[in-house]
Amino acid sequence: MPSYKAPTRDMKFVMQEVLGAGEQLAAIPFYKDNDTADFDLLSQVMDEAARFVETEIQPLNQIGDKEGCVRDDQGNVKTPTGFKAAYDKFRAAGWTALDADPEYGGQGMPHLISIAMNEMITSANVAWGMYPGLSHGAYSALHAVGSDELKKLYLPHIVDGSWTGTMCLTEPHAGTDLGIIRTKAQDNGDGTYAITGTKIFISAGEHDMAENIVHLVLARLEGSPAGTKGISLFLVPKFIPNADGSLGERNGVVCGSLEHKMGIHGNATAVLNFDGARGWLVGEVNKGMNHMFIMMNAARLGTGMQGLGLGEVAYQNALAYAKDRLQMRKEPRVSGEEADPIIAHPDVRRMLLTGKAYTEAGRALALWLALSIDTEHHHPDEAKRKEAGDMVALLTPIAKAFMTDNGFNVAVQSQQVFGGHGYIQEWGMEQFVRDARIGQIYEGTNGIQALDLLGRKVLMDGGKKLQKLAGTLQEFAEENEGDENIGDYVNQLGKAAQQLGSITMVIGQKAMSGEEGADEVNAAAVDYLRFFGHVVYGYLWARMAKIAHDQIAAGNDKDGFYLAKTQTAKFYFTKLFPETKALAATIKAGNEPLAVDDMAVFGWEHA
Amino acid sequence: MPSYKAPTRDMKFVMQEVLGAGEQLAAIPFYKDNDTADFDLLSQVMDEAARFVETEIQPLNQIGDKEGCVRDDQGNVKTPTGFKAAYDKFRAAGWTALDADPEYGGQGMPHLISIAMNEMITSANVAWGMYPGLSHGAYSALHAVGSDELKKLYLPHIVDGSWTGTMCLTEPHAGTDLGIIRTKAQDNGDGTYAITGTKIFISAGEHDMAENIVHLVLARLEGSPAGTKGISLFLVPKFIPNADGSLGERNGVVCGSLEHKMGIHGNATAVLNFDGARGWLVGEVNKGMNHMFIMMNAARLGTGMQGLGLGEVAYQNALAYAKDRLQMRKEPRVSGEEADPIIAHPDVRRMLLTGKAYTEAGRALALWLALSIDTEHHHPDEAKRKEAGDMVALLTPIAKAFMTDNGFNVAVQSQQVFGGHGYIQEWGMEQFVRDARIGQIYEGTNGIQALDLLGRKVLMDGGKKLQKLAGTLQEFAEENEGDENIGDYVNQLGKAAQQLGSITMVIGQKAMSGEEGADEVNAAAVDYLRFFGHVVYGYLWARMAKIAHDQIAAGNDKDGFYLAKTQTAKFYFTKLFPETKALAATIKAGNEPLAVDDMAVFGWEHA
């Protein structure tokens, strides 16, 4: 059975030594005033979170996979054994309220801490973690654009975890393309709306873990314009609450079936049928897409965390197995047994270091983003808020796609370390692979993330956000180009960053040149995001290596933590970062090789 | 539900136009005399095989995944619904005898045709295909080194499919490292041996599809030397046959349990307990490893075929979905619907073309290898046999590892084309991913294949086999460097081939320089195999493109088949082949980045 130990030491290293989180949070009155900026306190919270997750959540992971969720004839859904009990403890300990607004019962902790705990939960049990995870998305949207009335009625219950939330976007014919959804909203004339339609792929859509479920639903109000400009956001509770928050009548939303999935079996992925269900408008009419994106950005980082968390736990278990499994003899021998631990073999080390390098860089990116979100939401200086918000917008698609792609690949490589045993369910490695696969698909496929990055985040503002980041990198590179330890990394990084700029320019020019411009963006996007991801990870690895070398020089490396950082950085720059060479070539090749003859190559006949 | 259409047109193109199979087989008396060299006949056999596989085998694929195999308390195993009936038809139609020796009831067809059918079967239903597939391995070993008595008693039953075979190698503590197996053989003094021990991961190890099962078992004869030099190969039948071939008493080999696996659920992966089971020596005492390798090479190509077959069927279904699924609007629009087929979007085309390019090159490699095996086994000219055998030895690890890695990646990308629907079991795409994953692991992990290639096949003979292949490539490159159509490909290929040579030289020098030499080989192997694989695929794509351009120029491209070849070749060289740039860099980085501090990085304490 797999094991898990939360990497709190590394989390604290990133927060405090790389990001200077304590200082940054102290500059934000919201946290200062709530007494949630103190890093010692935050450290203790993380330690406690680790203990809870390791002992209460992780042991349920294989049970959840095996049992799955079961729906009865009435549409009620039973979650796997132990899921509800663990959730009750989770609520009772206040974890659902961690980074929520104190006005609604929250603890007002930074998002930084919530994201760290998020990583732990997804490592331990991603299917379980999606129940509170989806609630967090619903909380964010409602908190941002809901009316005071809705907020007062719903938020305290979501914050204390007695009610959970969902995001109802997808329909059978409409996934990426939300502009063509058919779910309808009719004005009841009493401040409520009748919602009718079918939503699919609704994570945590129906279950027995909470008293009530608050669905946030995209629907088209009668008479609204076609496309994304005619979509509104509605709140549809499973049970309609009375004014005092007690539960009233059952609403007209029913779970029609549960999907049979490749993984995340412990999470109920529901088909929800809305049959004139009573709904309340959230935010403004026809602004549903904008409002939903409040949730989507959080959900995208949350999905990226699944890649990180599953990569981490897969790596941990591969590492343990590699030290334990004796197979073949190394020269010189490293054990007195009939064979040596496979960790002695370079190719096994390559697989392990791939996991370590991607995971630790991903953690740095995630925590950097989380701290930026805290700054964006609460910093008193508007310019700082804007700057942080731009960085969040730019880096979110990278966090989602690059982290889930790497997480899946790390899970696959970690499974490979187990040889044949990796294919056997009892060892748990194949579950990590199956569970990790969905992260590349949902909350906008990674192809869509790439288009969001290149089309919307980079080209649409004329490269301003990119230039801002490039400036930061440039500055760091200039400061360190002569450094004896990281000078070589910084030079590689500087070249790649320059190349990113010139690649962007070329695509930007192509994009504006006539009809095929959009195709050039579409053709380049996925490779572009991967290239960009390496530039970001390279920057973070160079920074981490610099700090580690300084600590070693100062005689502070008692347990080898900093030595490990410097050696993992070297692995990253010599064995993973060179992927950029291939990507530069494939991006440069552009759309032409894809513009093949439709009939000859694909047998596709069209107008 | 997924569909499948055997790509017989492409198979015939490779066989006849690329490899000149008809002419080559006609030069081999064994086929000429058996009337199995005629390409028209072989074409008809392929068409009939396609019909059989599409209608009888493919419809059972999802059933097999869902039902799996079930073991009762006595150790009997029931295969999924329909598996036995399909196998009975398969036998009755003579397919188990296809390329077997006419002396034992075989049809004496070339291995070329058997490999083509192998691809079809793995596309249709890989779990089902493993039952006859394993029999083929047992047939090969027994045919090559068994005594006349054993051959006469067993081979006719294996050839007519009434008995199936297995390969019993792995034990709980010994997978890659067969030198440490513990299964024992004691001489009974009557020409038989008592076999005792436990074997795991035995594919098709116990089932209800055939009357008898012939286990080929690696065991250590009492008093034999330690390590691989003390291992012998034994034949252990489930039922001990009487001299007339009728079934006698039940032997002491029992299925102790079935593994719960990530995929290939329809195949029974058994733990087999041998308790003094009666066995017969196959070949010579203590030569078991050599004899087993007769099976292993066939099994490795067979495993490579799983990558090819699953890549092909995943690609076919992604292509169909991409034409059907309407999502987002393309400029200019390509349909009158509210959205356009997603195949119009360049990034979707990129995913599809990746599948097409890897699959068609893999098919060319597989059929080239199969024809080389026919030459190796039956050509009257010893020099030709030797030359073909060398090529088979060199290319087999590439076929196994490169084809299964690409097959898995193609399955994953094809699943991605489906968006969220790809994660749902009913669509069948996630089964392809799960089924494809094992190919990278079993029959020697792909890491082991890479060591076999670089260490044994390339370096151990001083690069002679490699130079032979490089000479072929060089000749082709020189002939075509000025070609207006493929000149650019040929130049890329020539450079990469030269680079492969110089990389090999550098690693070879490192390998001989002291204690860490073996580590340098181990560190480079996986990237080296991938680089080599691209050189081989590049060569095949350039050859296919040349033929296709010639046919187009001659006005022979009525249906666009050749145009598709030329455009897919271009995609390969511009979008996939550039991976070699990254691989060259990571190979060059060598072992140093992997030689990290064991305690600091991995927490691994050792002598």
Topology:
The structure is a homodimer of 607-residue chains.
Chain A: H1 8-18, H2 21-26, H3 29-33, H4 39-57, H5 61-67, E1 70-71, E2 77-78, H6 83-92, H7 111-145, H8 148-159, E3 163-168, E4 184-187, E5 193-203, E6 212-221, E7 231-237, E8 239-241, E9 247-250, E10 253-258, E11 269-282, H9 288-324, H10 346-378, H11 382-417, H12 429-437, H13 446-459, H14 464-480, H15 487-512, H16 517-553, H17 561-576, H18 579-589, H19 598-602
Parallel strand pairs in A: 3-6, 4-6
Antiparallel strand pairs in A: 1-2, 4-5, 5-11, 6-7, 7-11, 8-9, 10-11
InterPro entries (chains A, B): Acyl-CoA_dh-like_C_dom, Acyl-CoA_Oxase/DH_mid-dom, Acyl-CoA_Oxase/DH_mid-dom_sf, AcylCo_DH-like_C, AcylCo_DH/oxidase_C, AcylCoA_DH/ox_N, AcylCoA_DH/ox_N_sf, AcylCoA_DH/oxidase_NM_dom_sf
Pfam families (chains A, B): Acyl-CoA_dh_1, Acyl-CoA_dh_C, Acyl-CoA_dh_M, Acyl-CoA_dh_N
Keywords (chains A, B): FAD, Flavoprotein, Oxidoreductase
Task: Provide key terms for this protein.
homodimer; 607 residues; alpha+beta; Butyryl-CoA Dehydrogenase, subunit A, domain 3; 2 domains; five-stranded mixed beta barrel; two-stranded antiparallel sheet; 19 helices; globular; oxidoreductase (chains A, B)
Describe, in plain words, how this protein is organized in 3D:
The structure is a homodimer of 607-residue chains. Helices cover 57% and strands 11% of the residues of chain A. In chain A, helix 1 crosses helix 10 and helix 10 crosses helix 17. Chain A has two domains: 1-444, Butyryl-CoA Dehydrogenase, subunit A, domain 3, CATH 1.20.140.10; 449-607, no CATH class. With 607 residues, chain A is of the alpha+beta class. The N and C termini of chain A lie far apart (55 Å). Chains A and B meet through helix 9, helix 10, helix 11, helix 12 and helix 13 of A and helix 9, helix 10, helix 11, helix 12 and helix 13 of B.
